[in-house]
Design a protein that fits this description.
Helix content: 40-55%
Distance between the termini: 62 Å
Strand content: 25-35%
Order of helices and strands: HEEEEEEEHEHHHHHH
Number of strands: 8
Length: 230
């Protein structure tokens, strides 16, 4: 009788724990027969698992967690040949869907979910032009070094500095234009944290009260306060 009561208590506790989840990640990895999928978050500079599921035949899965506010989460796929793949995505309360293939997991990944994820993808698309230009400058610099052309080296150096400034101002402009989206303080903290403090203040002061009260909104405020104190 005691064993039965103990088992029922455990089941009840597990059920109660699941009831607190307000976020569901649904997914389908075409071609996956065996492996494990993990839902992870960043904590103290390390990824920690908050839910997981062993895949055995059926490539569809569901993972759950509780979110206080929108934040970046990570879907990790571990195959039994020890290959690991990780895809970041911006999650919010509700349902997010991730579909991909085992052949090209990162490249084929399609994410449908939060408005924060949509803005994150919009920002990455904006930044891709700066990334492409930077690659061109790296090649120019390499060629100048081979030719021992100091004039070209100086030119590529100046172009690179100009590109960095342009990328920073594009990010600041994007942030201010999307001040009501929780992805903004995350972008500031991860992409332009070393910008002049006056620009960080400008973005921070533009954020809506709801975004300021979010996870990354609070972290941005704490980061700015610390920089000012140092």
């Amino acid at each position: 009788m005691k064993k039965l009561l103990y088992a029922l208590t455990i089941v009840l506790l597990i059920s109660c724990a699941k009831d607190t989840s307000n976020f569901t990640l649904k997914g389908n990895i075409k071609g996956l027969k065996k492996g494990t999928v993990y839902l992870q978050k960043l904590k103290d500079s390390a990824l920690v698992t908050i839910d997981s599921l062993v895949i055995n035949g059926d490539p569809k899965f569901e993972l759950h967690t509780e979110l206080d506010s929108p934040e970046m989460l990570y879907l990790k796929l571990h195959q039994y040949d020890n290959e690991e793949h990780v895809v970041p995505f911006f999650a919010a309360q509700g349902v997010t869907e991730i579909n991909s293939t085992i052949k090209n997991f990162e490249l084929d990944t399609k994410i449908k979910g939060s408005v924060q994820q949509e803005k994150w993808e919009e920002y990455k698309k904006l930044m891709s032009r700066y990334k492409d230009r930077n690659l061109d400058l790296i090649k120019e610099n390499f060629d100048a070094q081979k030719e021992n052309d100091t004039s070209k080296l100086s030119s590529t150096y100046n172009k690179h500095n100009s590109l960095v400034k342009s990328r920073y101002f594009a990010t600041i402009n994007f942030a201010i234009n999307n001040k009501d989206n929780e992805v903004v303080p995350f972008i500031v903290l991860s992409e332009i944290y070393d910008a002049n403090i006056k620009y960080l203040d400008t973005v921070n002061n533009a954020l809506t009260p709801e975004v300021k009260a979010s996870k990354y909104g609070k972290e941005l405020q704490a980061f700015i306060d610390k920089r000012k104190a140092d």
